Amino acid sequence: MFIRWSASVLLALSLTACSVLQGTPQPPPPVSDHPQQIQRYQTQGLQRIGSASVIVRGAPSDGEAAIYNKAVAAGADFYVIVMNDETVVPGQWHVQATLYRDPGHVPFA
């Protein structure tokens, strides 16, 4: 009986921990004239337009800047960096992002 009860409690705590990591869905910030980095929980209602991946030498921020430039080139309103990791080569960073567009946003002509 105790084992069944403790297993139930452990399962409930595990599921609660998962929800903490997901975040509560929130709307993205207003669209601006440049792409904005957002979090995964802010993507509800946005249109996924692709992904971007770069490998750069330098610092993690250099990879994030390269992703920003790719988002600008793709015409994205928002992007979510899903990975920013150093490769086996010291000082070389692999960064991946998902690009989004607000379907209600009309780009400037």
TrEMBL record:
UniProt keywords (A-Z) are: Signal
**SUPFAM superfamilies, A to Z:** YdgH-like
Q: Which residues form the YdgH/BhsA/McbA-like domain?
A: 46-101
Which residues, if any, are the signal sequence? 1-22
UniProt keyword GTP-binding present: no
> Transmembrane region positions?
none
Q: Name one Pfam family in it.
A: YdgH_BhsA-like
Q: Is the Signal keyword given for this protein?
A: yes
What protein name does the entry list? Biofilm peroxide resistance protein BsmA
Q: What organism is recorded for this protein?
A: Jejubacter calystegiae
The root-end lineage is: Bacteria, Pseudomonadati, Pseudomonadota, Gammaproteobacteria, Enterobacterales
